[in-house]
Amino acid sequence: MTQTTFRPRRSCLYMPASNERALEKAKTLPADTIIFDLEDAVAPDAKDDARENACAALQSGEYGNRELVVRINAMETVWFADDLRQACLSKADAVLVPKILSAEDIIRIDGIIDDLDAKLTTKLWAMIEMPQAILNLGAIAALGPKTRLTSFVMGFNDLAKEMRASHDRSIFAPVMTQSVIAARAYGLNIIDSVYNDFNDPAGLQTECQEAQKLGFDGKSLIHPAQIETANRVFAPHPDAIVEAEAIVAAFNAPANVGKGVIVVNGKMTELLHLKQAKQLIATAAAIDLLVQ
User: Fold this and answer.
1) Measured distance CA(180)–CA(185) in Å, rounded
2) Are 223 and 4 in contact (CB under 8 A)?
């Protein structure tokens, strides 16, 4: 399977699909990704209506360049099969499946989508929120090149509950690093967990900066007020873009053709820096396309 490249996912906003006003509002929000939520944000007696709302939104064509994802209910629930089928047939860009435990779960879900129609372009995102998933990170991520799996989304609220731990972000530092390593080893995207206090922009910025330094692509969000911070922190800094353009220009100069190491602005610069510079420029360009 071909992995998605350079699509910005700085801000991935959960919107309860049972709330039609929220779905309407999402059409105007500057989030890179809208996640129509059928799981945690929807009461059991509203699940069917929420699924219908999400499918109608997917087919409306009214969300511009935003990536549209559906978080369906977990595999052991009575809603899973209908959620997965309808989201895929309604042409969701991806389905986000909670409570993933093992590589076998990914294989099963991938097979179900293929049985619906092997030509469907819907990708698979996995919630990493269970202790078993942490133990199986490498095996799960390794299926990325072989299946529809393209992304990890961290869920530290559920992980803390399962661990019987306090929700202190510092305890998840090893998990965050391990998850990024597993994702990058197999070409997956990775999105940080939500920040629960949407009235605390300083706390949100701190978490975004921590995740950005570790290599996360973006952050999952629970409120529109959080979008601006995530978009700003996870976007390439203007100074970094200028530096990246200088690196590319230097390697393209006739005097440096074929060289593996050159000096750019007084710094030793290798081919790996050139690769990073090109990726950063491509990411910035993709963000520019989104905001047009």
Assistant:
1) 8
2) no
Whether residue 291 has pLDDT greater than 80: no
Would you state the structure tokens that stand for residue 215, as one six-digit string? 């290599």
Number of C-beta neighbours around residue 140 at 10 A: 27
Distance CA 58, CA 246 (A): 41
d(CA 43, CA 86): 19
In this structure, what token pair is assigned to residue 286?
């993709």
φ and ψ at 84, to 5 degrees?
-65, -45
Contacts of 50 (CB under 8 A, 6+ apart): 16, 17, 18, 37, 38, 42
**Looking up tokens 């790996």, which residue turns up?**
272
**Rounded Cα–Cα distance for residues 48 and 256 (Å):** 61
Of the candidates 127, 92, 93, 97, the residue with the CA atom closest to the CA atom of residue 109: 97
Instruction: Supply the pLDDT for residue 4.
Output: 40
As a whole number of Å, the CA-based R_g of the chain is: 20
Q: Considering Cα of 57, then 61, then 62, then 63, what sign does the dihedral take?
A: positive
CA-closest candidate to residue 200, choices 221, 185, 179:
221
Please give the biggest Cα pair distance in the chain.
69
3-class DSSP state of 87 = helix
The tens digit of pLDDT for each residue in 16-32 reads 999 999 999 999 999 99
The residue behind tokens 């629970």 is: 222
What single-letter amino acid sits at 193?
A: S
